[in-house]
């Protein structure tokens, strides 16, 4: 929600539905002011999710920036059939400023994440850099475990040795 607000797109929560929504109580995209607190006209711009399989938990979020929304015609996004989806690009329609690059949005998201959780967020250039840090045991924070998680070591091709 904070990321969208930085680009002058107002969002809100919709009671009973997960995610970040634009235009509840309005008629369509491009409306920057949320309407009354109803789900009518709400369009999902951000999703959060969790997946648990074989004792492994994965979680994440998605923010539609310049997403091709036609792809959502082939699925029922988040299992919510009676509401549409939108993107930052669509919601900024008619705005004087251009739609930001994905990297810019990612930087804003990282900064906002750090502010909300009162933690510094450090950039990693890619999976290769993360693997190098795991192999070298270079960790940026004192509360980071002294050993990389087994899955990171597996991805890096590091053979895990148990401590004596």
Relevant terms:
single chain, 164 residues, alpha+beta, BirA Bifunctional Protein, domain 2, 2 domains, 5 strands, globular
Short description:
With 164 residues, the chain is α+β, with helices and mostly antiparallel strands.
Beta-strand proportion: 15-25%
Q: Helix fraction? A: 25-40%
Give the total of beta strands.
5
Average pLDDT, to the nearest integer? 81
CATH homologous superfamily designation of the largest domain: Bira Bifunctional Protein, Domain 2
* Principal-axes shape call: globular
How are helices and strands ordered from N to C? Answer: HEEEEEHHHH
Global structural class: alpha+beta
Assigned CATH architecture of the largest domain: 2-Layer Sandwich
- Strand count, sense and closure of the main sheet? 5 strands, mixed
Could you say how many structural domains there are in total? 2
Alpha-carbon distance between the termini? 48 Å
Number of helices: 5
CATH topology call of the largest domain: BirA Bifunctional Protein, domain 2
List low-confidence stretches: 30-37
Q: Identify the CATH class of the largest domain.
A: Alpha Beta
């Amino acid at each position: 929600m904070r990321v969208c607000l930085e680009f002058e797109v107002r969002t809100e929560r919709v009671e009973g539905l997960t995610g970040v929504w634009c235009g509840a109580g309005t008629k369509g995209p491009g409306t920057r002011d949320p309407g009354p607190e109803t789900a009518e006209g709400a369009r999902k711009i951000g999703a959060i999710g969790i997946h648990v399989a074989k004792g492994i938990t994965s979680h994440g979020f998605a923010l539609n920036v310049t997403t091709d929304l036609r792809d959502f015609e082939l699925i029922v996004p988040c299992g919510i059939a009676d509401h549409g989806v939108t993107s930052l690009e669509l919601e900024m329609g008619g705005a004087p400023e251009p739609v930001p690059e994905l990297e810019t949005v990612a930087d804003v998201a990282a900064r906002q994440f750090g502010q909300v959780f009162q933690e510094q967020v450090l950039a990693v250039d890619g999976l290769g850099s993360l693997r190098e840090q795991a192999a070298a045991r270079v960790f940026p924070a004192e509360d980071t475990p002294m050993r990389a998680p087994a899955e990171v070591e597996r991805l890096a091709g590091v053979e895990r040795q148990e401590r004596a």
